[in-house]
Design goal:
Elements lengths: L1 H28 L2 E7 L2 E7 L3 H6 L12 E10 L2 E2 L8 E7 L2 E9 L13 E2 L4 E8 L2 H4 L8 E3 L3
Parallel strand pairs: 2-3
Antiparallel strand pairs: 1-2, 1-9, 3-8, 4-7, 5-6, 5-8
């Protein structure tokens, strides 16, 4: 009888572990969103918080859909490198340090036939703790410059 209860208990533990694992995987793949203010414009962005999300970024998407871009927040400022891995559309990459633009890579083009080793690396000239990917041409169209500030829109 005790052996039967132990086996039943083991099954419950196994089921809980599997459900937790599935939930964790789904959480890692689910992007949250937020609204930011940049150059007087309210922009709706996806937020890449996890390592998986930051590795994947906008790769594999055919477009931005209902969003204006994707934000990559970091705990510490550094010269974070970006590549156009599996990208289907060109983007502007903007680096911020404490809410201030420190570098811009405008109109970064896709590299459909490049291997991981062949992908061009894009990084800021100064450390940054936030990187924003926007539709190609957004920075030029809105006259975005180094020194401009970004803010969080209160909801």
């Amino acid at each position: 009888m005790a052996e039967k209860k132990a086996k039943k208990w083991q099954w419950y533990v196994l089921i809980v572990i599997v459900i937790f694992g599935i939930g964790l995987k789904l959480y890692q793949r689910h992007f949250s969103s937020t609204k930011l203010e940049l150059k007087g414009q309210e922009i709706n962005v996806l937020v890449a918080k996890t390592i998986y999300q930051q590795y994947k970024g906008l790769g594999g998407r055919k477009d931005l859909g209902e969003y204006d871009g994707m934000a990559f927040p970091y705990y510490t400022a550094d010269k974070y490198t970006f590549v156009m891995r599996d990208m289907k559309f060109p983007i502007d990459i903007v680096w911020f340090d404490n809410g201030v633009v420190v570098d811009i890579a405008p109109n970064v083009q896709i590299e459909p036939e490049s291997s991981e080793a062949q992908l061009k690396r894009y990084y800021s000239r100064k450390p940054a703790n936030l990187v924003l990917e926007l539709s190609a041409g957004w920075a030029e169209k809105n006259d975005l410059k180094i020194g401009d500030k970004i803010g969080l829109v209160e909801e």
